[in-house]
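fwd from M.: "can u put these together and see what the complex looks like"

so here's what she sent:
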Amino acid sequence: MQKHQRMPVTRSRSFRSSLYRAWDSDLAWNFRHSPVAILASITTVSIILLAVLAPWVAPQDAFDPGAVRLEDGFLEPMDRSPATGMLYVLGTDSQGRDLLSAILYGSRVSLLVGFAAVGFSMVLGVMLGLVAGFIGGRTDAVIMRIADVQLSFPAILIALLVFGVGRGLIPPSQHEEMAIAVLIVAIGLSHWAQYARTVRGSTMVEKGKEYVQAARVMGRPSFAIMREHVLPNVLGPVLVIATINLALAIIEEATLSYLGAGVPPTQPSLGTLIRVGQQFLFSGEWWILFFPSMALIVLALAINLLGDWLRDALNPRLK
Amino acid sequence: MIAYALRSVAQALLVLLAVALIAFSMFRFVGDPVANMMGQEASQADRRALAEQLGLNDPILVQFGRFIGDVAQGDFGISYRHGRKVSDLILERLPATVELAALSAILATVVGIVLGVYTAIRRGGLLAHIIMTTSLVGVSLPTFLIGIGLIYLFAVELRWLPSFGRGETVKIGWWTTGLLTPSGRASLIMPVVTLAFYQLTLIMRLVRAQMLETLRTDYVKFARARGLPESRIHFKHALRNTLIPVVTIAGLQFGSVVAFAIVTESVFQWPGLGALFVQAVQFVDIPVMATYLLFVALVFVVVNLIVDLLYVVLDPRLRAGRIRPVG
Amino acid sequence: MLTSAKLLASALLAIALLAGTADARTVKWARSGDSLTLDPHAQNEGVTHALAHHIYEPLIIRDYQGKPLPALAESWELTSDPTVWEFKLRRGVKFHDGTPFTVDDVIFSYERAMQPTSDMKSLLSSVDKLIRVDDYTLQIKTKGPNPLLPANLTDLFIMSKAWAEKNNAVKVQDFKNKEENYAVRHANGTGPFVLVSREPDVKTVMKRNENYWGKSQMPAEITELVYLPIKSDATRVAALLSGEVDFVQDVPVQDIQRLQSDENLRVVVGPENRAIFLGLNVGDPELKTSNIKGRNPFADKRVRHAINMAINRQAIQRVVMRGQSIPTGIIAPPGVNGYTKELDVIPPNDVEKAKQMLAEAGYPDGFSVTLHCPNDRYVNDEAICQAVVGQLAQIGIQVNLVSQSKSLHFPIVQKDEADFYLLGWGVPTFDSQYIFSYLYHTKTDKEGGWNGTRYSNPKIDEMTASLSRETDLVKRNQTIAEMWKILQDETIYIPIHIQTLAYAMKPDLDIPVDISNQPKLKFLKIKKQQNQ
């Protein structure tokens, strides 16, 4: 009810800045009244913070092979290193890496790759989908056929291809530095078509609606119509796909590492830790699989719940 | 109408050609088949001779042209790994994948729509929350881990279901099916569930999102105002309008179910196309990889065509001719 | 459906237990990969041979320790002419289709194996002529004296000439000719099992050969043998734990302990005839992947010795291999002619001394280099490389790790594109010459194919060549010993360990680990279970 009262007030103010402020405060209002959103964002923000601050908060530099003691491999949670006395809160993995540090450092890689790749594919896919659906005709045909090509390949293969080409172009001495950038482009390029197709479908529907027709008659430029009228209305499904794809991108990164095309195994991501940990499912070293999986589940869950809430809150028709 | 059909076919052929070309430019990044085709005693000269014989030293465009030329004559080549005709291999493996993919697509669509509608109508309810959260946990884990977890629980601990393979199959012509034997049906359960999990979550969440939106549109409000029963509003009006993006995604998913079956098939040693492809990649079996990719592309093009036509059926506004479905 | 599946499972279990007490039994044998083809000459590859040994037979086989045993040949000896070997063939042997086995089948099979498209031809490259003496005597004339010829024949299977001719399978698979060869999916051997059906990558079913020549000498208690490739490690172990398979050949090292503790299973471990080691680019003037320009750190013997000292083999054995390896100081596995305990010296793991040696060589701050590693070929290969990266970091060598599929890794080694790499090497002939000629000889078209170190020593090349000429085995062994002495000091390879194998099976089976990883199940004796 409150929201309905606010809307007209904000709309009547001077155009752009107030619109944004209203949008902002509306969101804030919604946020304050959603415990799930608060919890999810606290979790997400703390994971992101911990990941970013890993070099300062982690007990060990998990990416420095010289700091890791192979002799300490497979120690249980809360064990101490027999040699150095260092406490391993979550135990160590098969290489003697402190699992807590590995998770912190690994989340860093996973978050970076996940967010950047999803952002990249979303922007690309939504733009192409809007253009295809709105303009139609030949442009639509060309874009959608390219999308078909992309969708025809298992995502992993496209990523492998891009990764291989990237490797060919980048000198070997820079492989490690460039690995993450190449991964982002590789994973991003293998997912845009899903957005494009969804957005195109919805755009075709929106385009036929009276308000868009009206805007057209009033002579608004196509670009403005797409941005102001069509885009907000197709964002629902896009955000659903994006939130799910975030977890998928993180998992895909692990699969790529598995195929020898990801981050180097000496600098494992969260997904890589899980991939390694699953070898120890039967052998009793449960913690190597359990903790990284929990970290990934909590992370993905928080992001998805936040995405859900954001979608509902952003949608003008849900008010 | 005929012009439209012709154009569609021409576009489909272009897509297939593009897929094959990209595939061929990719293969050298996968590895060198000669390394797998010869024993460790083979001399450098032998290796070079085999590479020459296979035409691996030719430029990519030449290899591509040769492959397309052969395909046009219905010849997909001989598998480097099995020494058998690729077309035979694909046909042999096809039934296993189709059975797996079709069952999981059905499972994902039916359960996805039901749960999506339920969670939309009961938005905020406890059970709806539980369903939404559980589904998220499911998609947060890599498929191989879900598969292995299921195997551990149902095959090792409980011993209810077989851990690998298709069980006993029955031959009907060249087709094989596991649906007609108890062991075949038992073998299907875990792979189907594993494969359906991700699609199910996607469809469920999509249906829910669309439902929530349409439930708040004016015509639904009018319908309510007219005093139509809730169930009729939900299923006749809301769900129908929800289905457009859902059909898009579900259609796309069937194609990608075939593609994503790769991991599931590998975990469960399911003798389908995905497993064939994984082994082909590891062996750098170029004819099998190329044919498989062409096949998946073909499935996709066909499914897309159907999806586009379904748009028209589902949304009367598209029939007015303002927007002509393309492709 | 669940309950009916459960009922079925328990019924099957009951039948299996009953069958276990009888002297006839079906054995389900699972391993990670499938045989590539049934054509015995198309692929020279361990997994393919392991299956083929049950359907086809060579003249000579090896037992699980690698000791030669007569199979289709009853005896063999070098004639007075040192270039001619004579083989007396077994009489009264029949192929599965009933045709009798004679010397013509041997000559036909060896000629087939020498065809240009055969993958087995290199094993017969020394053969000059195959001479038919009578129906059951074969003489092989070699181009020069070849004292080790019989060692090359243990995987050379004998096909029926009549069958191959009838079915158009005289030629080995040719990839130019786009037809499938009949022998790829059909088989007609003399072996202890007869092929019933084969679905590649799914299962291969064989039944006992009731007319087998050795039936009276062998237990031959398996009535049906089902070969099941299960690629995923976890699934394969699960299938064993759930009782769906009887014998698993490729047991992941981390699961051995758990399986050993299961009283319903038997686990056996033993060494494989294969060493795992690191190769160093010692020949190039400069390493492409290093920060040191203008000179090659690996060309300095002190650097190589420092690396040898920095590798903590015991830690790799205990943590990475879970105790399932034998640390080694030489790349020749024990049991190979030329291996001695004196050569197999593991340098003490001494980080301080290694650092000091690096400093003496002019690298007090170490250097950087890229290590290439396969991730799908040897037991825990990628994890071994990771451990090496960590251990070398402790003496200041920063190693970038590139780990990838063997299809990408092996060509890099063969084409001299790696500065630092991991490799494993098995020795099917059980003789050091095999190692010298592939790993130490200067790389030429014929020799040194797997020598990715750019090492070239004319003296070693000459001595390697002399080994194939020398018929005096005492003298020959002296040369081998002398060569190892030189090569051990050169340290162009850093040996890590001998890989061990683990087999897991139902307790009524007792299959020893085969040193070539080719268990021959005709020797399997099924134990009666007392407690049933």
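replying to her w this: Residues 1-13 of chain A have pLDDT under 50 and may be disordered.
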